[in-house]
Amino acid sequence: MTAQKTELPESLIEDLLPKFFKAFCDPTRIRIIQLILEKERNVTDLIANLGISQSGVSNHLACLKWCGFVSSRKEGKNIYYQVTDERIQKIIYLASQIIAENAEHIYACTRI
Asked: 7-53, pLDDT tens digit by residue?
């Protein structure tokens, strides 16, 4: 897992930041990330853990892969997915801490 340092104009970051977080707003995508943070997994393993269709898992993986959050490697007939950048794990961890400290307010918020 490597990180690339890229400087972007502030206006572009402002445009992309909501889109970045939108990739994390789907419960299935979050669960996929959590599962592959534990270990590399293939689609069959993800289907078994998530209880959703192959096309659903593949669609979410395509989104995560396109955004650069996950990558894949082929081994025989299987394709295994892993988190591309260790900062994704940090984002999930930090968000979980914030949620734990503000769970009641987040849960009760009627604006999101």
From this structure: 889 999 999 999 999 999 999 999 999 999 999 999 999 999 999 99
- 3-class SS of residue 72: strand
pTM here is: 0.85
The CA-atom distances, in angstroms, between 14 and each of 19, 20, 93, 112 are: 9, 10, 23, 19
Q: 69: domain CATH number?
A: 1.10.10.10
User: Is residue 89 in a domain?
Assistant: no
Q: Does residue 99 belong to any structural domain of this protein?
A: no
Q: In a 3-state reduction of DSSP, which class is residue 83?
A: strand
In 3-state terms, what secondary structure has residue 110? coil
